[in-house]
Hints:
This protein has 422 residues and is an alpha/beta fold. Helix content is 38%, strand content 24%.
Amino acid sequence: MKVFKFGGASVNSAEAVRNMAQIVQKHIESVPLVVVVSAMGKTTNLLEKLVPGVSSATEAATLRQQLRDYHMEIAKSLIPNHLDIIEKIDTLLHNLDGRVVSLVPSPEQYNYNYDQIVSFGELISTTIISAYLNTLGINTLWVDARQLVKTDHHYREGQVKWELTRAACKALVADSMTYSVILTQGFIGGTADGHTTTLGREGSDYSASILAHCLEAESMTIWKDVPGFLNADPKYFDDTVKISQIPYNEAIELAYYGASVIHPKTVKPIQNKGIPLYIKSFITPESEGSSIGNYHTISPETPLYIFKNNQILLSILPKDFSFIAEENLQVIFGLLNELGIRVNLMQNSALSFSICIDNNPQRTGLLIEQLRHSFHVRYNENLQLITIRYYTQEVIDRIVAGRPVLLEQRSRSTEQLIVPQS
Ligand code: ASP
Ligand code: MG
């Protein structure tokens, strides 16, 4: 079995869905192809505004109309006899309305409410795409990912219950061998007692990798709008180089440093089973793309760049000039953990401890406020964290381009720099 994942950009219009279906059609084999799909286009962003308490009733009504118009237009354009699909979409929207009014808009309930609402993006997209594939004569089974990817009750970041998920996958295989395609949602999962969870924003890659792991798939392919794994984000570089082969551990490192091409949790489940991961372009599906697998080095060998904007560098100093000792670090990490803040880079000296984190105004504000009970805190905002794997001095100089370096850390393979955002 093979697992394919299509993200929001690959299904953001009727034309995009037609293209996606062509790719699927070309890969049909004697065993079902498992296809994992995200919400269409930017639907998840829109749904975030429908979480109870986020928008006013009038705003919500407008957004709901936009949501309906967008999906109806795509469905009507794809499916000639669209009465059935219109009814199905309206039923889903009706269920969504029911959730919106029945959920209590409280901050404590926010994460729970979020998952119950935002999951409709994937439910609607897969309902339309499944109907379309069937009209093309591709025998498609629509599967509810909430019955497949089982998680705990950690809303907005469901932790996978592997045994339950494996069992559900096994049952699915037993029941679905006559189909050409098994179509399911990325991003969403379900608890044993029937509540919807999500795996974190952009989590569909991870969904596909969970399923590939549990189904012991032959391979997994992520179809993207870029030709493969590039050595830098094309937003920043004109002359990017496509990396053809990437070792699993290198892919994990790159995702950890913030390479946005794959979700950070994606690689481990497939690495554990030795399943190759291909990244290919849905725009030029015949071209080769990149593959992540059991390689020793990246190929071609070239520097790799990861840029993270909107960083804040905090310097934390004990008020009494005591050393930065384990007790202090324990307090600092305790707070970071409590607030769910990930440290992108850290460095300590005798009298201060510096951390670079994403500048999320709400969380950073809380962190600084709490730290100030025990420490002096200084900070610099609007920074960029640059990571260069396989650097040379020449490459570093070119990237820094004369900007002052606030902090630098270098290992044999990786250079990290914090500079003002240009
Ligand atoms: N639709 C979800 C999001 O936009 C999941 C995904 O696209 O991977 O975050
Ligand atoms: Mg998306």
